[in-house]
Amino acid sequence: MYSMHWYETLMIVVYLISLTFLCLYSLGQLDLTIKYMKNRRRHSNTNTLKPLQHFPAVTVQLPIYNERFVVERLIDACCAMNYPKDRLEIQILDDSNDDTSDIIKKKIAHYAPRGIKLMHIQRPDRVGFKAGALAHGMSLAMGDFIAIFDADFVPHNDFLLDTIPHFKDKEIGMVQTRWGHINRNYSIFTKMQAFGLNAHFSIEQSARNDLHSFINFNGTAGIWRKSCIQEAGGWSADTLTEDLDLSYRAQLKGWKFKYLEEVETPAELPILMPAIKSQQYRWNKGAAETSVKNLRRVYQQALPLRTKIHATFHLLNSSVFLILLIASVLSLPLLVIKSMHPNLLILFHIANIFLIGFFSIGIYFYVASKRSRYTTIKESFFTYFVTFMMISMGMSLHNGLAVLEGFIGKKTPFVRTPKFGSTDTSGLSAKNAYLNFKFSPLSIVEGILGLYFLAGIGLGIYLHDFGLVVFHAMLAVGFLTISYQSVKNPVHAT
Questions:
Q1: Catalytic: which of 31, 152, 243, 245?
Q2: Is 99 a catalytic residue?
Q3: For residue 66, is it left (φ>0), alpha (ψ between -120 and 50) or beta?
Q4: Backbone phi and psi for residue 206, each to the nearest 5 degrees, phi listed first
Q5: Whether 265 contacts 159, CB under 8 Å
C-alpha cells in the first residue's frame, strides 16, 4: 500500500470530471433522441402550406473562393430554380485569385440572354473572409430574403418554393434545410462524415426545433429574412463560425428559426484527410469562440432551464474532443494508480456508471441511422458506429487543440475546405492545382499517441485489468489511421 501523491489525486479528479462531462453530454443527446422519436411520425409541414400567391424578392448569395471544379455546377443549379426571374437575383461573391473568376464570367455570359440576374461581385481584398463577403453582398442585395449556398452544394430547383412559404409567419427569421451527400459512398471517410452529419441533421436540428430551443444556420442551404440579419447585428468575422454566431444573436433577439428535415440540399463531402481536418478545425474552433461570445448571454435571458441546458451542450459540443483527449491520455497512468491503491477500487467501480453515456450516444446514432425519416443507412449499424467512434477518437488531438485555441482567443485565418467536384464514382486528378505538399508535425504526434494507446493495451494485460482494453484498442486504431492518412496525403488548399 502506497500513500497517495498530490498529482495522483489531481489526475483522478480531472479524469472523473472529464467522464462526468462526457456522460452529461451523452444524456443530453439521449434527451434529444427521445424527443425526436416522439415526433417522428409528424406530417411534412411543407406539403400542408399553401402555394405562394405573392413572390417576395429573393437574393441568392454564393460565396466563392478558388472553386474552379464546382462553381459551374453551383451556378447551373441556382439558375435552374423555379422562381420568377424578375423576383430573383444571384450574387456570386467572388474572392478568388485564380481562374475561377474567368469561369464565372463565361457562365454569366452564357445565362445573360435568358434574363437571369447574375451579379459578379469582387472585392479588392478578403477582409472578413466569408462573413465579410456575405455582409458586402447584403449591402447590395435587392431581396427581402437571402438564400446562401456554399460552392460544394447543388440546391434543387424547388428550394425557394419549399422554404419561402414558411416566412408567412412574421416571427420566422431563418429556414434551414437538411444536407444531403452526393459522394457519400466515395470512401470510408465520406461514409463516416455522412454518418455523423446525418445525426445532426435528423435528431439534433429536429428535436431542438421541436423543443423551441436554439438551432443553428449551418452556413449554407438555408434562407434568411434580411431584416433578421440586420436586427441581430449583421455578419461578424470575429469567430470562425459566423453562421453559429449570427444564429444565436438572432434567436436571442427573439427571432424564431425553422428546420425542414424533409427538404434535402445535396452537397459534396471532403475526400482527403487534410481537407476533412481543415473543415473540422474551423467548425470546432469556431464553436468554442462562439460559446465564449454568446453562452453568457443565453443565461442572462429569461429562458426555460431545459433550453439553457441544451444551448450549453450545443455551444460546447466541440469541447467533447478536448475532454475525450484528456480522459484518454489520463486513462493509462490511472491503470497504474489503480493497481497501486487497491483501496480505490470502489471508486473505479463507481466510475463504471459513466458507461451509461456510451450507451446513450449509441442509441442516439442508432436512431439517426436506422429510425430517422430521411437518412437511414443500409449497412451494418454496429460496424458504422464502431468505425465512426474510432475515427472520432483519432481526431480528438487535432480537434481538441482547435477547441483550446478557440477558448483562449488565439486568432487564425479562415481556411477553406477544398472541393474537387467528386461524386460516388469520381475523385480528383493527381495534377489538381489546389493540392500542395505541406507536412504537419501534428501527424507524427497522432502516430505517437496511437503507439501510446497500444502500450495501454499491453499495460492492461500485464496488470490483469481488462476494463479499458477495448477502449485503448479503439484509440490506437483511430490515432494510427488519422496519422497514416494525414502523412499519406499531406496537402493543403491554396
A1: 243
A2: no
A3: left
A4: -65, -50
A5: yes
Would you call 200 helix, strand, or coil by DSSP? helix
The residue written with cell numbers 451527400 in the block is: 181
Beta-bridged to residue 58, according to DSSP, are 88, 145
Q: At 473, which amino acid appears? A: A
Give the other-Cβ count within 10 Å of 84's Cβ. 11
- State the pairing for strand pair 256-267/172-181: parallel
Only one residue has cell 450574387, namely: 91
- Please answer whether residues 12 and 341 qualify as being in contact, where contact means their C-beta atoms are separated by less than 8 angstroms: no
C-alpha to C-alpha distance for 287 and 223, rounded to whole angstroms: 21
Q: How many Å apart are CA 96 and CA 70, to the nearest integer? A: 13
Residue 434 has a pLDDT of: 62
| Residue 144 a catalytic site member | no
Q: Residue 366 and residue 388: Cα distance in Å, rounded?
A: 12
CA-atom Rg of the chain in angstroms: 24
What is the average pLDDT across 247-261? 98
198-207, 294-303, 393-402, 407-416: range with lowest mean pLDDT: 407-416
State which amino acid sits at residue 161.
Answer: L
**Main-chain phi, psi angles of 350, to 5 degrees:** -65, -35
Helix, strand and coil percent figures for the chain, each rounded to 5? 60, 10, 30
**Grid cell locating 454:** 497500444
* 40 φ, ψ (degrees, to nearest 5): -60, -35
Q: Which of 31, 95, 150, 152 is catalytic?
A: 95
Cβ(192)–Cβ(181) under 8 Å? Answer: no
> How many CB atoms within 10 Å of residue 253?
12
